[in-house]
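Supplementary Text 2. Reproducibility record for the structural model of the 131-residue chain.

All settings were left at their defaults, and a single model was retained for analysis rather than an ensemble. We include the record here because the model underlies the residue-level annotations in Supplementary Table 4.
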Amino acid sequence: MGKILDCLAWIIRHLLRLRYKITLVHYEEMRKWAQKQENKGILFLPNHPAEIDPVLLALILWRPFKPRGLVVEHFYYLGWIERLLSWVRAIPIPDLGKKVNKWKEAQMKKSRFSIEEGLERGDNFLIYPRS
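Retained model, structure tokens:
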């Protein structure tokens, strides 16, 4: 599955180059720093909430870091997208912007626990701010 995802990321990344020009700053330094972290995970917290940005950043970071996305449930469970997100081991997060209840609080605790365990194992995560 890993080689298929690598190939798919490469194809999508090159298709998106037809539309977007992306300049990476300090990318190599970040990769070198991450290699020295002795299997500890990284939590990527970008600060630009455009709708395409999570896709672009996930594709850029895929090869060296294989970040697991933290995705709001209403996006996560959209038809075929759920299958793709499960392949990249994304974690659904309840939408706390509309209404908070006991069930959502319990789901958030469960998600937080999964993230903490993943970081300890060396998994990397990518979370985007809600726009």
